[in-house]
Amino acid sequence: MDVLVTGVQRDERPLLERAFAPRHTVRALETNLTAETVPLAAGYEAVSTSVSAVLDAPVLEALVRGGTRLITQRSTGYNNIDLDHAERLGLTVARVAAYSPHAVAEFSWGLAMALNRRIVRASRRTRDFDFRLDGLLGRDFHGRTVGVIGTGRIGTAFAAIAGGFGMRLLGWDITVNPECERLGMEYVELDRLCRESDLISLHVPLMPSTHHLIDARRLAGMKDDVVLVNTSRSGLVDSAALMEALDQGRLDGVGLDVYEEEAGVFFYDKSLEVMTDETLARLLTHPQVLVTSHQGYFTVEAVSQIVEATVRNVDDYLAGRITECTLVPKSP
After folding, report:
1. How many Å apart are CA 308 and CA 19, to the nearest integer?
2. Is the pLDDT confidence value at 50 over 80?
């Protein structure tokens, strides 16, 4: 089958082309699928998208008119897809149910450590031959409290690393994970987790019940010197409320690998353009904030697993199989 793959990163391309080669012909494009680029998909029965694709009703309708019958997204998240409309149109939709949880968990700790020990600030200074330690004072994580919001596979991997630091573990989720309990985690109400934690890391999916889970009220309930890390989904944190808390001199560090309005910005070179998103511009220049461009998943192991799952989704579609990756099954 001929497959159009969009939103392909340069380092992802060889892994992707190698995985598809034995059974399918693939056309890999760096551009994401949007209303402007959807004509590129004409004639392709199968289209693979990144999480930055805009798959709303008009785009889905354009895909169907062009002959597309399968969308297989290379991510676990799928809040960018109008699944109800896809089902009405008879589209099959699949995702990647899981990949290496260690990729995101380790990256979350990378952000936390860089913020706590002022590593980025120190690196910038030493490049200018400024070797002072002023403003670089960090804290031991050992003996402090970490709050893990979402204790699935990634949250569990994050908690296991926290155990190696010798931290007290608090967790919040809709269900208790026995593996986290074995690590010594105490499950508590979310407000208590926010109140008692020195480090908070988010690992929950984005859905109506979790949208702006971290809002102005919960930010106000956190310690003034908390470190907050979000490598999960952008809409979990109210960006305006976060900026207000930072303006008040609160929060010791904020690590963001995702951002509410990242579509059309993350994964692109915007260096020659004026940044019109005032909130993002302020976050990028704030001394207590470290923003990365949705790269938490981006390891050889995780990307290989994502690509292999995507190829399986194409094979399952052709065979009429429904799997854990299926979001909208093939129409009879």
Report:
1. 6
2. yes
